[in-house]
Write a structure and sequence with these properties.
By secondary structure, this protein is of the alpha+beta class. A 5-stranded mixed beta sheet has the order 2-3-1-4-5, sandwiched between helices. Helix 10 crosses helix 14. The protein is elongated, with a radius of gyration of 33 Å. The relative contact order is 0.07. The mean pLDDT is 85.
């Protein structure tokens, strides 16, 4: 676009102001400054570029110059004041537009993740932000030692890495409750693992959970909730994996679906450990390390910083108190399930 394409209405009164200011050496009045700002806002709202608008003002000043009395310095000062006021209004309108766009994006993201909007309307709005909700989507959530906000260095670094690697493939990167989120098409198998790698590095070793691909407009919120649940499970179970997949953790929601039954199992299988000297916690940690190490006593002892003899003594104590032998395959599944249930129910801290 050239300055010739700029409508004359955005320059209305410019030549007259220029002539008066150049002739008298006065500064623009408050009303004149306000009118230039208003024209700047209107031009920005209409979508005209600032470069072409400034060029149009300079062309108008050059046309009026032969008719302008006074010194060149006063004339140039007048042009500067006019353009400065006009640009201020233009920039103010641009900032307002950005704020409105950010507010609309945040509202859309909140509705998308909480499922609060009509699904048909949500799908229409999603196209504006590069998502086609008619297809399946998966969500990855990254949680680090600090809270992250949109536009901060960490989200920008991760976003730049994704753009460099994949370009624009209907990916939405945002933040929610201090976490980084990436929404990607379900069939794009490389995007979320790459996001997880970049987010893990950018958040100084933070943890990332990836939900399963879910179809339709409501699929994003389902996958998002799966990722959040995976992060919560990882914290409760003290899992060390930096990247968690909800698909690999499905057994845990199944185990806790009947909370009453799980509570009874923990009570019956592990309750007697509470009578041990020092309480149930040390023995529960022993079982956890033993099962996590594949029932290898030497590895479990190393993890607990114990001797193998001390570990063996603890296992014998557990056998005596509960009647179940951790080394016996017939008892192992029941005990291991009870240990998982205890970690999920935060027993013995919460009691029964």
């Amino acid at each position: 676009m050239t300055d010739r394409d700029i409508p004359e209405r955005y320059l209305d009164g410019c030549a007259q102001i220029l002539a008066e200011v150049a002739a008298t050496g006065r500064r623009l009045t408050r009303e004149e400054v306000a009118s230039r700002r208003a024209f700047g806002e209107q031009a920005a709202d209409a979508g005209y570029g600032l470069r072409a608008l400034v060029s149009a003002h300079l062309s108008a000043a050059r046309t009026a110059w032969p008719q302008t009395s006074g010194s060149a310095a006063d004339a140039l000062a007048a042009v500067q004041q006019i353009i400065d006021a006009f640009a201020e209004g233009y920039e103010r309108a641009q900032r307002q537009a950005v704020r409105q766009e950010e507010a609309a994006r945040r509202e859309f993201i909140d509705d998308l993740l909480y499922g609060r909007s009509d699904l048909g309307r949500l799908a229409e709005r999603a196209e504006r932000f590069g998502l086609r909700l008619s297809q399946a989507h998966a969500v990855a959530v990254a949680q680090g030692p600090a809270a992250y906000e949109e536009g901060a260095p960490v989200p920008r670094r991760v976003e730049q890495a994704l753009i460099t690697r994949f370009g624009n493939r209907d990916v939405l990167l945002t933040t929610k409750d201090g976490r980084l989120l990436c929404v990607a098409p379900g069939h794009e198998d490389e995007i979320l693992p790459y996001f997880a790698k970049q987010a893990h590095a950018a958040t100084d070793g933070g943890r990332v959970a990836i939900g399963r691909p879910q179809p339709g407009p409501g699929g994003v919120v389902q996958s998002y909730e799966e990722a959040l649940n995976a992060l919560e499970l990882a914290e409760r179970l003290e899992l060390d994996d930096p990247v968690l997949r909800a698909a690999d953790l499905l057994v845990y929601p199944v185990l806790t679906r009947d909370r009453q039954a799980m509570s009874e199992l923990v009570h019956d299988a592990l309750g007697p450990l509470a009578t041990a000297r020092g309480g149930a916690q040390p023995l529960l940690e022993t079982l956890t390390a033993y099962f996590d190490s594949g029932c290898v006593a030497a590895e479990a002892a190393r993890r607990l910083s114990l001797s193998v003899r001390a570990l063996t003594y603890r296992l014998e104590r557990i056998h005596k108190l509960t009647g179940a032998n951790p080394a016996d395959p017939a008892h192992r599944y029941m005990l291991q399930t009870a240990v998982i249930g205890a970690r999920l129910l935060d027993w013995p801290a919460t009691g029964f």
